[in-house]
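I would like you to sit down with the pair of lines that follows and say whether tokens and residues agree.
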Amino acid sequence: MSYRTIVVNLAVDTKPAPIVKLAAELAKRFDAHLIGLAAADVPPLVATGEGLVYEGEVMQIQRTEIEKRLAELRDIFEELVPSSISNEWTQHICGPTRALGVAARSADLIVTANGGEDVFRAVDIGGLVLGVGRPVLIAAENAEHLLGKTVLVAWKDGREARRALSDSLPFLVTANEVVVASMEPHSSEDVRNSLADVAVFLEQHGITTRTEVIAGDADGDRLVAFARSIHADLIVSGAYGHSRLREWAFGGVTRSLIGQSGITRLLSN
């Protein structure tokens, strides 16, 4: 198993070089086709100082500014990605979460950085992870490389964790060390058996792993602290959440991992 097509998201309001370099490095490692993507949208309505709402000229000015920025990002992408890497560029005047959802139809992996608050200009990480149907690699802040020599797999026996385990196999196969850890108040026989089954699954893929039980309730900060204690630079985890009215409701660990910026995470749902 490998990633044959990788989509990298370039946010319009952040420096694109780190994420492009990281994605290009991954494309080279996995001999993958790299698609650079940037998108932003114009808010549908504009309020004036008098409280009126109008369209037209102001919206056209904003659209022109977005198109200019997308062109700049394309130039940076094409400059930073070596010609030896198969690549292409795509850009859209629409919300980046929506654009990535469309691009994911033909992708094995989505690479992005943490999103901002403006849904018209920044990806909604939570909505992307839970809705895109592909693994999402969320790069650490300003990270230009992902060695993936030590990978921590957060294990909770269920569909999401199983999906994340399978989705991360290309990283696990190339890692020097893989640690599968479950956060539990008590190390019961069921937990140990579950971890043992995961170790067998990975061994069948040629991956040697060790298992750990982290004492205590599931907690994202404790998970990240454990990752740092073993010098992991990638956390693999299932993403737990559901749509509630027009918002996403997340499990505590998922919510914490989405908000992290100091370590790269691969999340699947």
